[in-house]
Design a protein that fits this description.
Layout: H1 4-7, E1 15-20, E2 28-32, E3 37-41, E4 69-72, E5 78-79, E6 92-94, E7 101-102, E8 115-117, E9 124-125, E10 138-140, E11 147-148, E12 161-163
């Protein structure tokens, strides 16, 4: 690209772009570094990328095999449905305290993801969040979570520990 944005992209970058925003705040952006880290930045609500079971229209989906880690920066309010679906090499994710909602199947089929810490402030976890995360061993869910939908851990055959708050309905 020859845009001013391209001039700020570090050498070795695999891909970058915009990932929309559900509200009227700033646009969200993403970049995949040469080391395989996907960083999502900006402020507001991430779009929903679900097209139904087993598919995603996330803008980084075609690069999913290159993604080894993900950092969602502070200011992002949610993780959209199917955002990381099929990122089979994703081994770690950093979710900021600004996130309050985790969408349907957001991490579904992330077969190398071994653990997750959901930040305080998340109140609702949608269905299938970690579905088919075959290496997932432990998840920490904060006391702020009051609702969890069905199938959050469906197919997580390695899961050993989930700390659940007492207020979940």
């Amino acid at each position: 690209k020859t845009t001013p944005e391209a001039e700020r992209v570090p050498a070795g970058t695999i891909a970058y772009g915009s990932c929309g925003n559900l509200g009227d705040g700033d646009d969200l952006g993403w970049i995949i570094s040469g080391s395989g880290e996907l960083t999502i930045s900006g402020t507001g609500w991430m779009s929903y990328y679900g097209e139904g079971y087993n598919s995603s229209n996330a803008p980084w989906y075609e690069y999913r095999e290159h993604i080894l880690s993900a950092t969602i920066e502070n200011g992002i309010m949610n993780i959209g449905s199917y955002a990381f679906y099929g990122c089979s090499n994703l081994a770690s994710v950093q979710i900021p305290n600004s996130v309050v909602y985790l969408g349907d199947c957001a991490f579904s089929a992330c077969s190398k993801l071994a653990s997750a810490v959901i930040p305080e402030g998340v109140t609702d976890i949608a269905g299938g969040l970690f579905q088919d995360c075959s290496s997932l061993v432990s998840v920490t869910i904060p006391e702020s979570v009051t609702q969890m939908s069905n199938g959050v851990f469906s197919g997580c055959r390695s899961l050993i520990t989930v700390n659940l708050p007492g207020k979940i309905t």
